[in-house]
Amino acid sequence: MSEHMLEMAKALVLVKDGEITVLSDPKIKRCPLRSQLYGCDEESRDTVRRVLERHMAEYGMYGPNRVLESDEKPVSFGASEIIMDGMTEGLIDAAVVVCEGAGTTIVTRPEVLQATGAHMTGLIRTDPIPEIQEGLRQRGCTLLDDVCTIDPVKGYLKAVRGGFKNIAVTITGLRSFEARTLREMGHVSGHPPIVFAVHNSGVSKEDALTLAKYCDIVWACASKEIRLVAEGRAKIQIGISIPVFAFSDVGKRLVLNRAYHFDEGLIIHRASLPLMPSGKQPEPLI
Q1: pTM
Q2: Per the domain annotation, does 87 fall within a domain?
Q3: pLDDT exceeds cutoff 90 at 94
């Protein structure tokens, strides 16, 4: 028996004992990435339900048969893909991420990181699923606690106490204050975190400025403000429909490392950022 709350396409969703209830209409009407991955040309409560049902059927998400190892890279420039490649190259020792059924988790194996993060979206709260918790521990992960607390700052501190140095931490844009806290704690510990901001649709101008100042890599998602704040601040952009911006040299190195590991063709050229071709952005930008 477990209950989980999340956002998908900015729709609020409840998963209770394996049953999905979409509680609100998606605020995003069209997302190029979701269209490519799942065939969702126009978002609705039905598309949100269908995508989540697919995640549960194919990856066992929100249940005891959760897939916990994967080397698939479904998103060209996703957070889990960039962190996975960073781990592979030794640029990242550990990642503080969230997983349903486990809460805040410290992951050290690339294939475990990819399995837990590839299709994770906007997890707000989650209940314990013993099989997921035990499976993660068997794969060398450390959980923040047994009650599924979602707290990346405490997760970072636990990773530092565990002896890790190059620690990636994912936060959500609506909790941008955590980026500043993490940066301050990094100065104290001597091991600056590598901060990734995901799920940024709908952030305020103030949130966007905070993310640009304190984060290493920020996903634009369907955010108008992230796209605006990137001008004159971002060091590199990768992707155009869902732009990913690096705001630090560390972030730039990780983005370029992902480009190195990317199997398909890429073009890199000088440009004024952000580069946002019309017709290729989510609708609406919020």
Answers
A1: 0.97
A2: yes
A3: yes
